[in-house]
Amino acid sequence: MIQAVGYATNHSFTDLKPLKFERDEAKPNEVTIDVMYCGVCHSDIHQAKNEWGNTVYPCMPGHEVVGRVSAVGSAVTRHKVGDMVGVGCMIDSCRQCAPCKEGDENYCEGPNSWLATYNGPMVPAKKAADEKNHYGRDNTYGGYSNVLVVAEDFALKIPAGLKPEAAAPLLCAGVTTYSPMKHWGVKAGSQVGIVGFGGLGDIAAKMAIAMGATVTIFTTSEEKLDEARRIGATGVPEENLKKEVDPTNPLTLSFDFILSTVPEKHDLNPFLPLLKRNATMVICGDLGPLMPVNNMQLASHRNGVAGSLIGNLADTQEVLNFCAEHGIAHEIEMLDIKDINDAYKAVEKGEVRYRYVIDMATLKAEDAD
Amino acid sequence: MIQAVGYATNHSFTDLKPLKFERDEAKPNEVTIDVMYCGVCHSDIHQAKNEWGNTVYPCMPGHEVVGRVSAVGSAVTRHKVGDMVGVGCMIDSCRQCAPCKEGDENYCEGPNSWLATYNGPMVPAKKAADEKNHYGRDNTYGGYSNVLVVAEDFALKIPAGLKPEAAAPLLCAGVTTYSPMKHWGVKAGSQVGIVGFGGLGDIAAKMAIAMGATVTIFTTSEEKLDEARRIGATGVPEENLKKEVDPTNPLTLSFDFILSTVPEKHDLNPFLPLLKRNATMVICGDLGPLMPVNNMQLASHRNGVAGSLIGNLADTQEVLNFCAEHGIAHEIEMLDIKDINDAYKAVEKGEVRYRYVIDMATLKAEDAD
Q1: From CA B72, how far away is CA A354, in angstroms rounded?
Q2: Per the CB < 8 Å rule, is B107 touching A309?
Q3: Which of A58, A264, A366, B96 has its CA 20 to 30 A from that of B72?
Q4: Å between B157 CA and nearest CA of chain A
Q5: A2-172+311-367 domain in CATH 3.30.70.260?
Q6: What per-residue string of b and e applies to B193-228 under the rule 16 or more CB within 10 Å gives b?
Q7: Which of B164, B1, B275, B184 is nearest to A307 (CA)?
C-alpha cells in the first residue's frame, strides 16, 4: 500500500482538512503519479457540500490533476517514469458498452457509468433497482492529494508547450467546453455565443477564437466587458437582452451555437431568439432542472436545447494539444492548499478570475493527524 | 371580386357560423380553388378561441384544404383547371430571406414570417418594435370556405393514389410529423418513440413504420394500446414510465428519436432516459413553455430537446407522395360543416379517432346571412 495524504471533508458542513490514507499500489495497467497541481472546480464544492445528494464521506475532491509519473505497472506502455501527465474527471469506465468501445467513455452506459476520480464507485439511488445508493469497496479519493494511481489510458500526456499548472483546468473546464464545440461543429467563421465568463466561459471563448469563430460573451458583470474585449471577444451585458424576440437586436438569429457555462439555474429564453435556424444552445454548466423553455421559440426556427457532460479521453488529449499549439490557457491563481476553504468561498461568490490551482508542494504530510 | 362563403367566429367565446365574404380574383401567379375538403386541426380551435392571444376576428380557420383548380392566373405553369390540389398552413412567405431561398419557407425570417392560410398577415406584438399587434389590409380567411385563392407554388399536387379527403390532414398533421422525422434522420432500422396517439401520432407512427422504423407509441389511453398493435406499433401506457432513470425498463437508452405530438403541456422527463446517446426528443405538438427539463439527464447521454414547426413546401409534396406510394392515410371521420362546433368539443375531449374532415359540399351559401 502507498501511504498518502490529502485534504478531505467529513460532512457537508465541515471544512476540508488534512487526511492520511492508503492507496493501492499500481496494478499492471496502472501508473502512480506524484501530484504537482490540482485545479479547483465548482463541482468540487457541489460534491463536498453534498449538493447533488450522493456524496460519500470522507470526500476528497480534485479532478483537474497534473503530476509526474513515479512508477508504472508491468504492462504499461503509454507512459514512463518522469512523464508529465494529467487526470480529469474519470479514472475508469466499463470498457464494454457501445460508447466505451467507440471512445465516448464519458457517456459510458455500464451499470455504474464511468468511475469518477473522486466520490466513486457507486450506484446512485436513481439507477439502483431498490432506489438506494450502493457503494463499492472504495470511495475514490481525488487529486487534492500527493499521489494518485490510475489506469494508464486515463492519464493524458501534458504537451511540452503547456505550463503544467495551467494544464490542470483544461482537464475538466477545458474539455467540458471543447467537447460540445467540436460535437456541434464550431469552426472558422462560426458565430459563437458564450453565456457566463468564469472558469469555463474564459477558456471556451479563447478556444472558439482560436478555432476562427467570432465570439460574443454574455455576462451579468459589467466589469467583465473589458476583459472580453481583451481576449478578442465582444462582451454583451445580459440585461440588454429581452425575454422574447427583439427585432431591434442585431444579434437576433445570428448565432450558430450558444454555450451556457453558468453553473446555476438561469433563464434560457432570452438567448433562444439569438440562434440561427437549426442551431442548438448547449447547457454544460448547470446540471439541474432547467427553467421552462418556450417551445414556440424553439419551433419557429427549429432550434434545440441540449446537454453535454465533460468529454471523452480523445477529446481531453485533443484539448491539451490544441491549447499548447495555440498558446491558450486559463488565467490561474496559485493556491496554498491550507487556503482551500477560503478559496471555496471565493468561487461561490464568483470572485476568482478564472481558476484556482492548488500547488501541491504546499501539502505536508506532517500537517495530517 | 369572388363572392365566397365560409364558417367563422366573431369572438373567442362564440360558435362558428356561416359568413359571406369576398376574395380577390387570382393574380397572374395565383390559382383559384373550389374547396372540397378541409381537415379540422387542434390549432383551429386554439386560434378560434384566441388561446395564442393573437387572433383577428372574424376568424375563419382551416389549413388542411383540398380542392379542384377552377381558374388560373396568366403566369401559372404548375397547375391547370381541374387539377386536384392541396393547401396547408402557409399561402405565401417573404421569398427573400435565406430560409425561403433554401426552400425552408416554414422558417421564413422575413419581417412577418410566412403568411398563414388564416389569421394573417400580421406582425405579432412580440416581433413589433412598439410591442403591439400590427394587422395588414387582409385578415386571411382559411379553408372552412367554398373557395380559396393562393400563389401557385403554395398549392401542392394531390397524387392520384390518395383519396382527396384523406389527403387533407397530411397538409398539416402529416407534414408536421414527417418533417422532423426526415430532419432528424429516421430511417429503416430506427427505433422511434411517438408520444400521444391522436391525429399527429397516428400518421407519424404509420409513416415511421413505412420508413422501416420500429415504432413504440406512448399513450395515456388504455384502449389505444390495441389500436397501436393494429397499425404495427407497440403501445406502452405512459404510466408505466418512471420520472427518472429506470434501469429495469428495457426501453431505457433504446430510442434513436422520440416525437411528442401531445397538444398540451406535459412532463418530458420520463421520456429522456429512453433516448440513446446523442438522440433528440422533438416536441411538435405543444408550442407553449415546456415543463422544466432535467439537464443532468440530457447531459448524461448528450441528448437534446428541440422544436419543429410544420414543414416546408417540398416536404409537404413529399409527404403526399410518400403516403400515396405506401397506401398510408389518417383514419378520418367526415363532417357536415353545420356540426363543426360539436366537432371542436369532441377534439378538445380527445374523442375523435383520428381526424375530422369537413365535406365542403355541406356548405350552402344560402345558410349565410
Answers
A1: 67
A2: no
A3: B96
A4: 26
A5: no
A6: bbbbbbbbbbbbbbbbbebebbbbbbbeeeebbebb
A7: B275
Query: Are B292 and A290 a contacting pair at CB < 8 A?
Result: yes
ipTM of predicted complex: 0.93
In chain B, the residue whose alpha carbon lies closest to the alpha carbon of A248 is B129
Nearest CB neighbour to A307, from listed B244, B253, B295: B295
Greatest CA separation found in chain A?
66
Q: How crowded is residue A349: how many other Cβ atoms within 10 Å of its Cβ?
A: 8
Q: How far is A272 from chain B (nearest CA, A)?
A: 11
Chain B residue numbers touching A305 (CB-CB < 8 A): 293, 298, 304-306
- Tell me whether residue B83 is exposed, middle or buried, using C-beta atoms within 10 angstroms of its C-beta: 0 to 12, 13 to 18, 19 or more: middle
CA distance B312 to chain A (A): 12
The stretch A57-81 carries a mean pLDDT of 97
- For residues A157-169, give the mean pLDDT: 96
**Residue spans per domain, chain A:** 2-172+311-367, 174-307
The pLDDT assigned to A52 comes to: 82
Rounded Cα–Cα distance for residues A118 and A122 (Å): 11
Best of B89, B278, B295, B315 to mutate (most A CBs within 10 Å, chain A): B295
pLDDT < 50: residue spans in chain B = 135, 137
Reference B44, options B81, B6, B83; nearest CA is: B6
Among A100-114, A123-137, B262-276, name the one with the lowest average pLDDT: A123-137
Closest CA to A331 of A203, A228, A172: A203
In the block, cell 494508464 appears at: A152
What pLDDT digit, counting tens, does each position of A40-54 carry? 999 999 999 998 888
- Residue A50 CB contacts under 8 Å (≥ 6 apart), including other chains: A12
Nearest-angstrom CA–CA distance, A34 and B86: 72
CATH code for the part of the protein at A174-307:
3.40.50.720
Cell of A310: 465533460
| Residue A85, beta-bridge partner list | A67, A157
Chain B positions touching A286 (Cβ under 8 A) are: 295
Which chain A residue has the Cα nearest residue B105? A301
